[in-house]
Design goal:
The protein is mainly β and 344 residues long. It is built from 3 helices and 16 strands. It has a 16-stranded antiparallel β-barrel. Strand 6 and strand 7 form a beta hairpin. The two termini are 27 Å apart.
């Protein structure tokens, strides 16, 4: 270890004071030595094939092919405090390896019974599960980390969380932008309630600070979960309202709303998800474009041929129904591997 520090001293770093570098290295070693548990390595791998054959003109027809690798090192200060540092990187097949910049994992996690909190830059996978009407699924591909904070309370009753995702600091070339919201799933016997809401703030560049756009939306569902009452592994039905709002200040808000019904069935390795929305033409910057039609149905049929503790696969064939247009379809083949040493 002292040999490593000696090498640091001999390494010429532009505009960096060697004594400051040594002092920082010593502090890091002291901090690591003081950790109660760790370090340990965490990691996951995703292979993505998402082919969208859309001819209705309602959404963008495209094919997304790539692989994502997220890995790092985590430490526990004690039983409730944890820090982690790593890298989340996606490579789109056929592109420059650095076309998509790696995203750093750098976060603090607090965890006790029935409550957890994350602060920093941390993977959003499985932390937020918004309906596609509000947040499109491609956000997982191109913005895999929440950069801000998330707090969640949970128990036998379900869960409720709140989050803030900072997406830009105002500069001459970058807009000030952030997203903040809540989501939850509350259950009582076979009845459940789900709530979702977020606001998206998008301001002008530093040379035009008065231009501000407000956009956001929400959804509330009430449903029944019959999985324990049937042979099916999953059997959910719900109905609810979906809304969005939009304005460019100082103009008035433009509110839009509609109704949506959803069903989800799964048995052993085969599943069906169905949804239908009818109402106003939702306008959400981060939402699925199909919902801007105001009359949209979707049917997903999928297979999970491999589903273990560490490996999850999904083959999905989706049909998109927009009134007045031919049926669009899309295909997904997804592989997710959480490495056995993942203790996060």
């Amino acid at each position: 270890m002292f040999k490593f520090i000696s090498l640091l001293l001999n390494f010429k770093v532009k505009n960096m004071n060697r004594k400051s570098l040594l002092f920082g290295a010593i502090l890091l070693l002291i901090a690591i030595k003081g950790m109660a548990q760790g370090p340990w390595v965490y990691g996951s791998f995703d292979n993505i094939f998402d082919d969208r054959e859309y001819f209705s003109g309602q959404a963008n027809s495209q094919t997304i092919l790539g692989a994502r690798f997220d890995a790092g090192i985590a430490f526990k200060v004690d039983s409730v405090h944890q820090i982690a540092a790593g890298m989340n990187y996606m490579f789109e097949y056929g592109s420059d390896p650095f076309a998509l910049k790696p995203v750093p994992d750098l976060y603090y996690k607090y965890s006790i019974d029935h409550f957890r909190a994350f602060f920093g830059s941390f993977p959003r996978y499985k932390l937020l599960n918004f309906p596609l009407a509000l947040l499109t699924d491609s956000i997982l591909y191109y913005r895999p980390n929440i950069q801000g904070g998330l707090m969640e309370a949970s128990g036998d009753w379900g869960y409720q969380n709140a989050f803030c995702d900072w997406t830009g600091r105002q500069t001459p070339t970058v807009h000030e932008a952030f997203m903040a919201g809540i989501s939850g799933h509350i259950k009582y016997s076979i009845i459940y309630f789900e709530d979702y809401f977020y606001m998206y703030h998008f301001a002008g560049l530093i040379d035009n600070p008065t231009w501000v756009q407000d956009n956001g939306g929400g959804a509330f569902y009430v449903g029944i979960d019959l999985a324990g009452k049937t042979i099916l592994d999953k059997c959910n039905f719900d109905i609810g309202g979906v809304t969005s709002y939009f304005r460019v200040r100082p103009a008035d808000y433009n509110h839009i709303w509609g109704m949506q019904g959803r069903a989800s069935l799964f048995y052993k390795f085969f599943g069906i998800d169905a949804t239908y929305y009818k109402g106003g033409k939702l306008f959400l910057v981060w939402g699925d474009l199909f919902y801007r039609s105001g009359n949209y149905g979707r049917l997903d049929t999928y297979l999970k041929l491999i589903k273990t503790k560490h490996v999850d696969t999904k083959i999905d064939w989706s049909f998109h129904f927009v009134k007045g247009y031919a049926v669009d379809n899309s295909y997904q083949v997804m592989i997710r591997i959480d490495f056995p040493f993942n203790k996060n």
